[in-house]
Amino acid sequence: MTDQSNPNPSALPLNYRERDTEYVFRLLFAGESCSLVGVGSVGKSNLLQLLVDERVKRQYLGDYAPYMLMVLLDPHKIVHLQERALQQAGTAWPGYEIMLSRLRRTVTELEDRGLLPAAASEEEHLSKQVEELYLNLFQDQALLVQSGIRHLEEVIFEIMRLGPYWKIAFLFDEFEAFANLPAEFFESLRGVRDEFKNRIVFLTTSRRPLRQLVDEPKQKKMEGFLELIDGSVRYLGPLDRDSADAMLRRLEERYQRVLEPANRRNLLDATSKHPGLMRKSFPYMQDLATGTITMELLCDHLLQFQGVRQECETILDSLSLDECQCLWDIAQGLYNGCGPEVERALKAKELMNLSYAGAPTVSLPLLRRYLQGQPRP
Fold first, then answer.
1. Per-residue exposure over 308-339, b if at least 16 CB sit within 10 Å of its own CB, e if not
2. What is the largest CA-CA distance in the chain?
3. I want to staple 60 with a disulfide (CB 3.0 to 4.6 A). Which of 25, 192, 258, 280 is the partner?
């Protein structure tokens, strides 16, 4: 029997990363901005895709779901102007362009689904008004194209006029790509949020806390925006068991191969349910004979393959040098303390915990084995 509530069987289930999803929706509904921090390939982008899924919105917001607009900002869709065009448009132009572009799509989808009040004429359709303001960004007049904040304000104002229950959440995926925008851009967003307090919210994902992504002078200039995030930072770790099982089912469907139960357990144990390591390791679990195998031999088998090694490097690239050196010392059995700040960060990212004997250990066995074969960072 198929699940009629989920027309796409390969889609993530409603309970995927349930605790993280519940946390995000609780804050956004309350009108609070937040930030999700996690190492590379831990599943930050997948979580954002889940948040904008209408099934998931209904699950967590009920009848309020249509009135919470989730605007996903994909950094890979940023328009990078050539220098001469950027001089005319202004350095903040790419930020306003992607926000207005995605707002335009969101409003059009709402109209297509009949969720907006009927307009008296074609010109009064909200999507038409948003389109006109968006197209202003592409005019020849420098003053007009550099007024992106005004165009964004007008679009938000028109949406807010629909009723006091409407809210907009802007989801900045991979915030590192947006951090290059000028500080004035982020402060203008703080201004928009203050005008519509508790109705405009921001969610960011990044590999490191936002304050580590910009230098101190820029931090001071965008302090207002950072203040919105500072109080609600959540670290994403490996998957819970239900979510890991769901991911395994998707991988089995993709590769048209079902793992034996013993190898499913082996894969979950070696990767500690880290999504990126699971995804890269899955194809090579099929080469193993079922049965017992030591963790060291299993990790050595998987680390023969470049994709698995690259995934380990992706995780390490997400960390500071001090954090990498601390993990290396632990993996080599040379741990002599790393400083409380480094240890707190590694524990928050679920990369370091205590063994049964009470000694610190690298939480991901596959990463631990990889570090044992590397020189100290």
1. bbebbebbbebbeeebbebbbbbbeeebeebe
2. 73
3. 25
Residue 289: burial class (beta carbons within 10 Å; 0-12, 13-18, 19+): exposed
154 near 133, Cβ under 8 Å? yes
d(CA 347, CA 291): 32
Q: Other CB atoms closer than 10 Å to residue 37's CB: what's the count?
A: 23
Determine the 3-state secondary structure of 73 from DSSP.
strand
- Spatial distance between the Cα atoms of 219 and 225, rounded to a whole number of angstroms: 9
Give residue 54's Cα distance to chain centre: 18
Q: Are 368 and 357 in contact (CB under 8 A)?
A: no
The number of residues making up the chain comes to: 377
Cα 121 from Cα 86, distance rounded (Å): 36
Query: Is the C-alpha dihedral spanning 212, 341, 274, 28 positive or negative?
Result: negative
Distance of CA 252 to the CA centre of its chain: 24
Q: What is the residue-level pLDDT of the chain in tens, covering all 377 positions? A: 333 344 454 578 899 999 999 999 999 999 999 999 999 999 999 999 999 999 999 999 999 999 999 999 999 999 999 998 888 899 999 999 999 999 999 999 999 988 887 765 666 789 999 999 999 999 888 888 889 999 999 999 999 999 999 999 999 999 999 999 999 999 999 999 999 999 999 999 999 999 999 999 999 999 999 999 999 999 999 999 999 999 999 999 999 999 999 999 999 999 999 999 999 999 999 877 666 789 999 999 999 999 999 999 999 999 999 999 999 999 999 999 999 999 999 999 999 998 777 789 999 999 999 999 999 99
Contact 71, 169 (CB under 8 A): yes
